[in-house]
Amino acid sequence: MSPDHPPRALPTDLLDLLDLQARFLATVPLVDPDEPVPSCGTWRVRDLVTHLVEIHRWAAAQAARFPEPPPDAPLAEPVDAPVDLACHYRAGATELADVLRRLDADAPAWTLLDDSPGDAGGTVAFWHRRQKSETLVHLWDLRKATGLHTAEVPDAWWLDCVDEAVTVMHPRQIRLARIAPPPIALTLAADGEQRWTLSGAPPGAPAVSVTGPAPALALLLWGRTSAHDPSLAVGGDPDGLRALDALLATSLTP
């Protein structure tokens, strides 16, 4: 490439995604493919890895707007045939990374912000962030499954994961009628930093707050921990507190 056309700088969320993909890939050989993943129901490690490969490839197709209506997120089926999971993940991660590197962040893309087939309001940048959060949570799943120390990542990544869950994923669950609007006004506060309130609660709904470190808040929203996590402080209206566990048992995120 000539000096007149320097390489395009990659957006921060994409750089973070590439970092997380490398961490995930490095962890795969350290775990038994048949090890259960308690945070993902009946899945084993091979199912988790295959799921993330499928999600990466699906996201690449949405970012590139392949000529077909955007489907909803696929669910992995159990993988019975022997497969080199590290090679399998590397192929899927590379496919996504290549597409996102090639496309301008501001280029039109199908996203989860509008679920109509003709959605043209989103951009490729959406998928930088979406896949970053997806990979972050599943890296936690992978390492937690076999007792590995959870990966040390910047708190900013977990804060953004919380923000995406509250502002994008939870409203979409309501929009698609997968869950009912929350019966309580739930506010989440990261230690000394940001605050969020779940949308959709009716006027006058009992107020409940959950405060704690960003990783615990993100894992709470993604169903990986409960409000009884000792790192979280819960307070609020008694009626709201009784309803909190039931709310968290619903699929706040897909």
From TrEMBL:
GO cellular component terms, semicolon-separated: plasma membrane
Domain Mycothiol-dependent maleylpyruvate isomerase metal-binding residues, every copy: 22-143
Molecular function in Gene Ontology: isomerase activity; metal ion binding
Keywords from the UniProt entry: Isomerase, Pyruvate
Residues in MDMPI C-terminal domain copies: 159-239
Matching InterPro entries: DinB/YfiT-like (IPR034660), Maleyloyr_isom (IPR017517), MDMPI_C-term_domain (IPR010872), MDMPI_metal-binding (IPR024344)
Pfam entry (one): MDMPI_N
Recorded superkingdom: Bacteria
Xref: PANTHER family: CONSERVED PROTEIN
Official protein name in the record: Maleylpyruvate isomerase family mycothiol-dependent enzyme
